[in-house]
Every structure is written in C-alpha cells, then in structure tokens.
Design goal:
There is one protein chain. This protein is an all-alpha fold. The chain contains 19 helices and no strands. It is globular, with a radius of gyration of 22 Å. The structure holds beta-D-glucopyranose (BGC). Beta-D-glucopyranose binds near residues 31, 148, 264 and 394.
Length: about 450
C-alpha cells in the first residue's frame, strides 16, 4: 500500500510540471540544433575536423560540468531558484552563441549553454518529482523527456527552414532564446519544492506549498512521511554506505544504458547515417531526420500515460527489445546494402523502430528512476552524480562514433550497441525495481532495510 490515498490530477500541479519542463525543450533544442548549424560554421571558419568536433562537443563538456555542480546548487539555492538561474545562463549562452565574434567565442558560449543544459537536465526532473503526487509522478516527470524530444524536433525544423540562407547559423542558435525567456518568467510564479523546504527545516512553508499543489487532496501524512525521511543528517559521505549501493548501481547502469545503446549516434548524426545508408540527396536525409524527430515525440506521448498505468519495467523491457531488434536489423542492412538497393528503406524503418523503442523506455524512464531512488537528504548530490555520469557516457559515444564506423564499419558499430542493449535488458529484468505507486519515502525505507534492488518499489 502506498502512503497516500488515490489522487486525481489537479490542473495546478500539471501547470507547475509543464512550466518546469520547458527546461527540457532547451535541453533538446540546444543539443539538436548544432547538427545543422555546424555545416555553416565549418564553412565560415574553415574548421579542421578537430575544431569541428570541439565546436560540437563543447556543449557536452559544459553539460558535464553543469550537472556535476547542479546537485550542491540544488540543495543550496533550492530547485526553483536554480531553474531561474539556469534560464539566465541559457539566455547569456544563447546570445553569446548567436552573436559570437570568433570561433573561440562561439566555443565558450556553447560551453555556457552546455552548463545550463547540464543543470537543467538534473534540476527539472528533480523539482517535478518533488512536487508531483505519487500516482502521477511518472507521467509528470516524463513531461521533461517529452519536452526534450519536442526541443530536438524544433531544432530539426529550424535547421531545415534556415538551411538555404547563408550565415543563418546565428539565427538557428538564436531561436533558443524564446523558450529560455519563457522558462525564466514561468518559474518566477511557481512554488518552491515542498521536499526542499522540509529539508531546510521550513516545515510550515512546506505544508503550505503541499496544500497549494494538492488542493483538497492534501494530507498531513504526506508531510509526515517527508519529515520521517529526514531524520538522519544527510551528507555526501552517506553515498559511501553499503545500503545505498543498489541505488547507485541502478542509477549508473541506467545512465550507461541510455547513452551506450547508441541513441545520440542517431539524434546527432542521423543525416550522416542516412547518407551512409544510400539516401543520396541531402534533402532526403534531412527529411528522414525530421521523421526521426516526429516519431520520437509521438512515442514519448504514447508512453506518458502508460508509465504510471503499466509501470516502468514493462515499458523498459519492451522498448529495449524493440531497440535490440532494430539494431540487429540496422547492422544487417548495412552488411548487405551493396547487394540489395532497397535495404536503405530497411535501414530507415529500423531507425524509426529504434527511436520508438527508446522513446517508450530508456528515454523517459532513466530520468524518472534517477529522480526517484535516492534518499531525500542526498537526493540532490547523488542524482546529480548519476546525471553527470550519463553526460560522460553521452560525450564518449558522440566522440567515438565516427571513429568506430571507420574502424569497424557500420555493421560492427551497431552490433556493439546491440550487445550492450541485450545485457541491458537482462539487467533491467533482474535489477531494476518497479517504482510505480511507491512513495519516494517507501523506496528509501526499502533501501535502508537492504531489500533486493529489484524489489525496492514494493511495500513491506
Ligand atoms: C537523452 C538524450 C537524447 C534524448 C533523445 C534523452 O533522454 O538523455 O541524450 O538525445 O533523450 O530523445
């Protein structure tokens, strides 16, 4: 049994989560937009491939640093204030990128945007998970992932629209200013996280905020649950304790699996892969890429209501099986492409199925579980470490993809992601808990009691 009675979703909490999720649009837009913009930057500044790589990955470097800092910042400033500060960093970095006077300036500005992405990628799901009622936590937190996919799709559209005008990379980057300003003003009106208020000992304010976000469904027992979870003084040394190891293992593994099954080879390099698969015209490759963006959004929308209804595990397992099969087919279509021309369509369908599988599984659920499994006292610090690790894996895959293709060929490369996916499915089956319907405090109690990791979401 959960510690809360069944609740219906009220409009206010949906609005709060939606506004915070605008941070996800910025995340998606700013990581996606560079794939098109780089073509123009490369020509204007006559970049070597090394400089090319540095411009593309400066944002990932920034995100890594930002996510490392974000945990302590989220505890110090509070989740809401941190998201306000982040929107200002987004604005500064976006203006800097759009108006940059030299390539060094551009790299620095993209690094600043990356800082904001790293902080936002951690702070937005954390904030939403702490405001959401438990029955709807999955869908509300995953609004952030939906926003990421919308941001990526917007970036693909913006790249497509500006494609033919010279020097338009500044406009491509500059478009990001719109969601950043909306996030800034929107966050000003949102409440502080009740769990953060309780963490700071501001119990009356925490109660008032809970009353506001729950409306008539407010129950004092929710606040009591939060307060009970705060009995032990939190410090980062808690992270070294044995009972936390299952949470750390699950967080790291999901971050690894989300990135090392190859998602961003497709998100960042889709046009390149389509060209390799035989789509000769750039227009065809770009159109196919836009298709990837749309399918990503659509299947995330399909996943949202199912996450709290079917649960995290069935979606993770079925989505990852789709990913595994399509990676196998993709490898196969590259292996036999020279013999059968129509196999490029096979490659396109495989990539669409792969994206659909990702969108219902590792896409939303990795962020969700990372925001759910750590005890309140170290939630900020611990989950930010997990998010940083996932940015590290992201950068590693992005930086090695083209070299792997050169050394192993497309077939070998996609097979590697496939093998990782296969072991990932086994890991999910045996280790990842079902957190649907479990309160954050209940998950913590199970961790402390040394329950098997796969059972962490169960009531005792
Ligand atoms: C991942 C990103 C990825 C995006 C694709 C996110 O959950 O963290 O790396 O580009 O999903 O939708």
């Amino acid at each position: 049994m959960s510690t809360q009675a069944k609740s219906t979703l009220n409009f206010y909490v949906v609005m709060v989560a939606t506004i915070a999720a605008i941070a996800g649009i910025l995340f998606g837009f700013d990581t996606g937009v560079v794939s098109g913009a780089i073509l123009f930057i490369r020509n204007e500044y006559h970049l070597s491939s090394l400089m090319n790589g540095i411009v593309v990955s400066s944002v990932l470097g920034g995100a890594l640093v930002g996510s490392l800092l974000s945990g302590s910042f989220a505890d110090y400033f509070g989740r809401r204030k941190l998201l306000i500060i982040t929107s200002i960093i987004f604005i500064i970095g976006t203006l800097g990128s759009a108006m940059s006077l030299s390539i060094t300036y551009l790299i620095l500005s993209r690094f600043i945007v990356g800082l904001a992405i790293g902080i936002a990628s951690f702070a937005a799901p954390l904030y939403i998970s702490e405001v959401a009622p438990l029955e709807h936590r999955g869908a509300l937190v995953s609004l952030n992932q939906l926003a990421i996919t919308i941001g990526i799709m917007l970036a693909y559209f913006v790249d497509m629209i500006y494609d033919h005008n010279l020097n338009n990379w500044r406009l491509m980057f500059g478009f990001g200013i719109i969601p950043a300003v909306i996030l800034f003003f929107g966050m000003l009106f949102l409440p502080k996280s009740p769990r953060w208020l309780a963490l700071k000992g501001r119990i009356d304010e925490a109660r008032k905020t809970l009353q506001r976000v729950r409306g008539i469904q407010f129950k004092e027992s929710e606040l009591t649950g939060i307060r009970n979870s705060l009995k032990e003084k939190g410090s980062w040394t808690l992270l070294l304790q044995r009972w936390l190891m299952p949470a750390i293992g699950i967080g790291l593994a999901l971050g690894f699996l989300q990135q090392c099954t190859g998602i961003n080879t497709i998100i960042y390099y889709a046009p390149t892969i389509f060209e390799m698969a035989g789509f000769k015209s750039a227009a065809g490759a770009i159109l196919a890429t836009t298709g990837i963006g749309v399918v990503n959004v659509l299947f995330t929308i399909i996943a949202l209501p199912l996450i709290d209804r079917w649960g995290r595990r069935p979606l993770l397992i079925s989505g990852m099986i789709c990913m595994l099969l399509s990676l196998g087919f993709l490898a196969f279509s590259f292996a036999y492409q020279a013999d059968i021309a129509s196999l490029r369509w096979f490659a396109l369908v495989s990539m669409l199925v792969y994206i659909a599988g990702f969108a219902i599984s590792l896409g939303p659920i990795m962020w969700l579980i990372i925001a759910e499994i750590f005890p309140l006292e170290i939630r900020g610090f611990a989950s930010s470490l997990m998010v940083s690790a996932s940015w590290m894996f992201n950068a590693a895959v992005a930086l090695t993809f083209l070299t792997l293709i050169q050394k192993l060929g497309q077939t070998g490369t996609f097979l590697i992601y496939g093998v990782i996916c296969f072991f990932g499915i086994l890991f999910v089956i045996f280790k990842v808990p079902e957190t649907k319907g479990a309160s954050l405090e209940q998950i913590e109690n199970n961790l402390r009691a040394g329950v098997r990791s796969v059972d962490l979401g169960k009531s005792k």
